[in-house]
Structures are given as C-alpha cells and as structure tokens.
C-alpha cells in the first residue's frame, strides 16, 4: 500500500483497508459457507448409482422426483405448521417478557439481572434442554402424575411426549430467547419521554401499546422472526426426538436421505428449502435494515 | 442477544435517569399479569433442566422419571467407565479443545472484522449478507456440503479441520454481530486522540481500543466457546470418525435409556455454567476496576 496524499486515492485506500480487516472472515466463510452451498447445489444436479456414488453431470431428475412426490408437500406443510406455531408462541411470550423488563421493572440493575437470567440457558446445550422435558412430559412424568393425583384425568395422557405438542414445546422453550433479546433491544431504545407525552395527551395504555411500542419494536420483531423461522425450518433434531419419529420436517427427511446415501435427492430438497428460506428472509429484510439496526 | 449483553455494563452506567413513566406511583394491574407471565416463563425455562440434574443423582435403581430412587453418584461413574455409553471422556476432551480453538479464532477474526465494518468500503454489504447467510443456513445442509467438499478434495474429515471450519461458519457471524454492538458504543474521538498524541495504528489498537472494548471481547469469547461446545448440526457430517460431545449425547439419546444420559447433561451444564459465570464475572470485574480507576 503506497502512502498517498492525494484525496482521489482515499476511497480506494479505505476499500483496501476494509477488505484487509474482513479478509480473515471472508477466508473462513468462502470455504465453509459459500463452497459447501455450491457443492450441495452441484450435487443436486448429479446422478447417483444409489450407493452414495455420484456421477457428475446435469440432470433435473432429483428435482422432478422431489417435486413430484406427495411426501414433499406433506413435509413442507408439517414444517410450516411447526414454524408458524413456534413463531406465534415465541413472539407473544418474547414480546411481553421484553415489555415487562423494559417498562415495568423500575430498577435498571434488576432489569439487567432478570434479562441475563433469561439468556443463561442460551449458552447451555440445546440437546440437554430438550431431553429435560422427558421427566415432565412422559407417560409417567410429573405432569401426568400431577393431573392424575388431582383427579383431572384417569389415565395418563399420551399426547404429551413424542407428539407434535412436544415438538412445539421444545421449540418454544429453546427459541423464545431469540425473540426476547432483539425486542428488548429495540424497546430499550424507545424514549420514555415519548410515552409520558402520550399519557399527557390522553392516550390510553392500549393506545400507547398500539401506536408507540409495537411500531417501534418492529425491527426487533423482524430480527427475532428471522432467527426463529430459520432455526425451526432448518431443524431436524427436535422433530426427530420429540415426536418420537412420528413427525418429519423437510430437514429431517433430508437427514434420512443422507443416511441412505441418497445425496442428489437430499441436495435437491436442501436447495429448495434454502430458496424458500431466502425468500422469507428477504421479505422480512425489506421491512427493516438490520445492518443499520444492529450498528445503530 | 449480542447487542444487549455487550452493552450491558454501559447501560448500567447511565441508568440514573428517572423511573419509567407508566410505572410511576402505584403498579397498574398489567404489572401483576406480566410479572406472573415472566415468573412462569423463568420456571418453564429452568424447571425441566433442574429436573434432570436432580434425577441424575439417583442410585442404581434409577429410571428416567420421578420419583427419585435413592441418591448416589452411580450414574456419573457409569458414564465415564461403561463402554456401552460410548467414549464420553474422549469426546469431552475433544469438545473442550475444539471450543478453545474456536474461541481464539472467533475473537481475533470478529475483532478485525468489527474494525473493518466501522467504515463503509466497496463490497461491505456483500460480506455482511454472506455472514447473515452463514448464520441462517440450515446447519445440517452446510455440514453435508462441507463433508462432500472434503470428500471431493480427497481430505479426511476430522474434528480439527472440517468440523472446526463448519463451527466457525456458525460462531463468527454471532461474534461479528456482537462486535457491531460493541463498536457502536466506541467513541471515535478516543482513537483520534491517540493518533494526535503520536500513536501508531497498532499502538492505538493495543493501548486504546482493546482495553476499552475488553468487556465486549469477553462477550465474543463467551459466544465462541459456548456455541462451539454445544454445536451439533454442523458437526454431524464433518466431525469424521471421532465424536464431539454433542454428537455423543445425540447417539446416547437414541440408545441409552438410563440416568447416565441425565448425568452427562449435568456434567456438560456444569461446564457451561462455569464458562458463563467466568465470562460474566470478568466483565463485571473489568467494569468495577475501571470505575474505581476513574474515581481515583
């Protein structure tokens, strides 16, 4: 890099410095994000001998197979069902937990302490947190025991564990934090004077919520939605374990395909899923500039 | 997540502003409703986890559900000595080593990228969205792509090559996002002052930026370590023949039906808690030290 005092060269120097700083990041993301995606894309066009061997070539057979199977529709419907249910519950719980912490806890230190209390499980194992529902939801689990003892039911409920209900519970348990944090973040930036002014102008509590808090938390909601939707749609583990094998999602079917070495079909289905995911994320990003949100 | 955690100490400082308008004076009824919701959320968050910690201390008659059958450390001994539970010790060892390597790389690369993203440069948006893509892409698909890539290149997949890269594609976006939040609170003036006093670029980074940003860097390290230590989906196809701990837990959920599964959950959570406690503790310590220096 030549030291130069001419102002015309300043932008290119800034560009070079910028790229130098992010080059280590790019050097990791290219081989471990861009290249694998391209490999999967390529594999989706290859033919297979059925034993895991791939024949380089270009065929749309895998896509036709995936798009023609009735299973695909079923898998997508199941995935969308889980995604929507999880999104609704995490949004409601996340929004009100964040609202409580920002607007109702008067002591700031206490609010931060309670906030950290919510985030600690995020840094522990998801798998362990998921299996920890077994002693509660199981046929002989605590919930059934309690309901039996109270006489509410006479036979243990079997729908609690290894069912769609258990899948949604596990998702909500793991992912609500992804809603709380960004919503908390955007709510904390709302100027409290604005709310005082609204009260002085005669706004009701509901008006304040509807006209100030919700619109101003929109970016947090968008960010949380991206996290929750992309994680649920990309998950196979929770569906597999918590449904007891009874339900499947797009990625859990992908996992089974990989298990039996059906790479091209798996890859084709992965490419389709990625396209759907990109479309959803792009749609959300149109409503909010997350880069500006994060750096603000 | 990132933003709030990173600026936690900063928000604590100017917290001397007045209490929030709507909660002045008597508590409105919504406070009690939301406090109850918050309480229930925290119970649901921690309750199941504590159930399995308690159940892991049963004796040899122990099962997967309550009531407790005796108490002993039997299942912990079982975990590390029995062959049928797999190579817990080895995978534990590998996971810790891998997490340490991932943490170091994540802190360095995120810090540099954070410096780079402070100024606009040509192509910065591209790098940013590549990073977001790496964050939201389904982990299992990326893992498969990485695995196939290594296969195609004739390289052996192992935990310290392919799995390391696959995990970095997950921890780096988090690390950089945390750095964004941290950097947005860094006043440019301090750096300018350092330059005016004759500091070189390296001196200003080492003597001004790193000490000021230290709490944020600890937060990045916390993300790097815990996300790697618990990472599952991306490692599944990339770890090669030797398992990391989450992979070991995964195989245990499929074939071990004794409390040793819970014992493993207890052990890994203790490690997580130690790391979280140490990180948060050192952030508080740095802030305290800084506060007393500022006063003295």
Entry keywords:
heterodimer; A: 296 residues; mainly alpha; two-stranded antiparallel sheet; 74% helix; disordered N terminus; B: 296 residues; 12 helices; 70% helix; globular
Sequence-ordered SSE layout with sheet pairings:
The complex is a heterodimer of chains A (296) and B (296).
Chain A: H1 10-44, E1 47-48, E2 54-55, H2 61-68, H3 70-104, H4 108-119, H5 126-131, H6 134-137, H7 142-150, H8 164-188, H9 192-200, H10 205-216, H11 218-234, H12 237-242, H13 250-259, H14 263-287, H15 290-295
Antiparallel strand pairs in A: 1-2
Helix pairs in contact in A: 1-14, 2-14, 3-8, 3-11, 8-11, 11-14, 13-14
Chain B: H1 2-6, H2 8-12, H3 29-55, H4 74-81, H5 88-116, H6 124-136, H7 139-152, H8 162-183, H9 188-196, H10 201-229, H11 245-255, H12 260-295
Helix pairs in contact in B: 4-12, 5-8, 5-10, 5-11, 6-8, 7-8, 8-10, 9-10, 10-12
Task: Characterize the structure shown.
- The complex is a heterodimer of chains A (296) and B (296).
- Chain A is mainly alpha-helical and 296 residues long.
- In chain A, 74% of the residues lie in helices and 1% in strands.
- Chain A has a two-stranded antiparallel sheet with strand order 1-2.
- In chain A, helix 3 packs antiparallel against helix 11.
- The longest helix of chain A has 35 residues.
- Chain B is 70% helix and 0% strand.
- Chain B contains twelve helices and no strands.
- The N terminus of chain B is likely disordered.
- With 296 residues, chain B is mainly α.
- The relative contact order of chain B is 0.15.
- In chain B, helix 4 crosses helix 12, helix 6 packs across helix 8 and helix 8 packs across helix 10.
- Classes of the chains: A mainly alpha (296), B mainly alpha (296).
- Chains A and B meet through helix 1, helix 3, helix 4, helix 5 and helix 6 of A and helix 1, helix 2, helix 3, helix 5 and helix 6 of B.
């Amino acid at each position: 890099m030549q030291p130069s005092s001419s102002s015309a060269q300043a932008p290119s120097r800034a560009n070079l410095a910028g790229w130098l700083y992010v080059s280590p990041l790019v050097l990791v993301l290219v081989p471990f994000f861009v290249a694998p995606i391209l490999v999967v894309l390529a594999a989706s066009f290859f033919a297979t001998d059925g034993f895991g061997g791939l024949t380089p070539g270009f065929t749309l057979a895998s896509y036709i197979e995936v798009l023609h199977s009735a299973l695909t529709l079923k898998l997508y419907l199941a995935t969308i069902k889980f995604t929507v249910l999880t999104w609704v519950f995490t949004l409601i719980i996340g929004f009100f937990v964040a609202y409580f912490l920002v607007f109702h806890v008067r002591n700031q230190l206490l609010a931060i302490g309670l906030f950290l209390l919510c985030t600690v499980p995020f840094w522990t194992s998801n798998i362990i947190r998921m299996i920890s529902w077994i002693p509660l939801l199981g046929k002989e689990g605590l919930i059934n025991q309690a309901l039996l003892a109270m006489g509410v039911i006479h036979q243990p409920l079997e729908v609690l564990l290894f069912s769609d209900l258990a899948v949604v519970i596990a998702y909500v348990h793991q992912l609500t934090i992804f809603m709380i944090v960004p919503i908390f973040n955007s709510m904390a930036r709302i100027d409290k004077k604005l709310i005082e002014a609204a009260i002085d102008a005669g706004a009701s509590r509901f008006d304040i919520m509807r006209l100030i808090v919700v619109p101003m938390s929109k970016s947090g909601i968008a960010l949380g939605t991206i996290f929750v939707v992309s994680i649920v749609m990309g998950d196979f583990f929770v569906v597999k374990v918590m449904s007891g094998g009874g339900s499947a999602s797009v990625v859990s079917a992908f996992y089974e395909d990989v298990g039996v070495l059906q790479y091209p079909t798996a890859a084709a289905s992965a490419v389709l899923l990625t396209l759907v995911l990109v479309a959803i994320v792009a749609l959300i990003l149109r409503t909010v500039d997350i880069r500006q949100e994060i750096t603000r | 997540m990132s933003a709030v955690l990173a600026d936690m100490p900063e928000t604590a400082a100017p917290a001397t502003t007045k209490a929030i308008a709507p909660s002045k004076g008597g508590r409105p009824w919504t406070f009690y409703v939301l406090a109850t919701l918050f309480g229930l959320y925290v119970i649901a968050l921690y309750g199941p986890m504590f159930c399995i910690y308690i159940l892991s201390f049963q004796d040899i008659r122990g099962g997967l559900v309550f009531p407790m059958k005796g108490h002993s450390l039997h299942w912990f001994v079982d975990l590390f000595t029995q062959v049928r539970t797999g190579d817990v010790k080895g995978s534990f060892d590998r996971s810790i080593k891998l997490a340490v390597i991932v943490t170091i790389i994540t802190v360095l690369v995120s810090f540099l990228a954070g410096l780079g993203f402070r100024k606009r440069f040509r192509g910065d948006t591209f790098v940013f969205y590549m990073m977001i893509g790496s964050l939201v892409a389904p982990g299992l698909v990326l893992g498969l792509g990485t695995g196939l890539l290594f296969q195609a290149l004739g390289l052996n997949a192992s935990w310290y090559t392919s799995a390391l890269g696959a995990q970095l594609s997950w921890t780096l976006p988090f690390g950089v996002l945390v750095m964004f939040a941290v950097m947005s609170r860094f006043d440019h003036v301090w750096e300018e002052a350092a330059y005016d006093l004759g500091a070189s670029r390296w001196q200003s980074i080492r003597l001004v930026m790193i000490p000021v940003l230290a709490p944020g860097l600890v937060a990045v390290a916390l993300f790097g370590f815990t996300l790697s230590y618990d990472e599952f989906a991306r490692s599944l196809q990339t770890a090669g023949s030797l398992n990391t701990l989450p992979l070991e837990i995964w195989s245990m959920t499929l074939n071990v039906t004794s409390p040793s599964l819970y014992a493993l959950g207890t052990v890994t959570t203790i490690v997580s808690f130690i790391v979280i406690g140490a990180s948060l503790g050192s952030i508080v310590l740095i802030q305290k030290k800084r506060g007393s220096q500022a006063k003295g």
